[in-house]
Amino acid sequence: MLCRCFCSKSASVNNCDIPMTPIIKAQNSGTKEDDPRIPLTQKQKYLLTKNWKGIDREVCAAGVEMFLKMLSTHPEYYKMFPFYNIATSSEEKKRMDDCLKAHGESVMKFLGQAISNIGNSDKFFELINENGRFHAHKKYFKPEMFWAMEEPFLYSVKLILGERYTDNMQSIYKTVIVIILSELEKGCQAELKSRKMIND
User: Fold this and answer.
1) Transmembrane ranges (predicted)?
2) Would you kindly state where each structural domain of the chain is located, as residue ranges?
3) DSSP string of 13-68, one letter each residue
4) Each residue of 155-165: pLDDT tens digit?
């Protein structure tokens, strides 16, 4: 989710190169097997990383569906994205927008990076916290905005996975997205507080 979101309207719609956190391979060393911050069993973590491969294969489509769902609930957010000009376009045209596709893909890839490191809780939380802090530097962004992605994320994952989105996987995804969004919010709040202390 390390992205150039919430940029000004003057941003070029065609200039959608979005910086991302470098891909970090999953690691399992140097971490507790049962970190209380991640209330999932080792089997559930394994199922999650295995199941996510289905999203990886359609990461762009998943990202587009997630953002379209979120923006259907919060259309006022369109003005904060580089693809703001598609707000009144048809659903078909929105899905074809290159900037929306690039942005959605980058966000889903970030979530995939976090999930791939869920076996290493220190790296998992480090990635997410860093991303949350990054968003604190976005002019229009507020920490609580992260939560607008919870239901759209689950909707998108269910849509892409189809029958692979079982009741068990639904429970796992609900758990992990709450952890991720909570940590993103904390990271963003911490960075804002730090900036305020420096400026005071």
Assistant:
1) none
2) 42-199
3) TT------PPP-----SSS-SS-TTS---HHHHHHHHHHTHHHHTTHHHHHHHHHH
4) 999 999 999 99
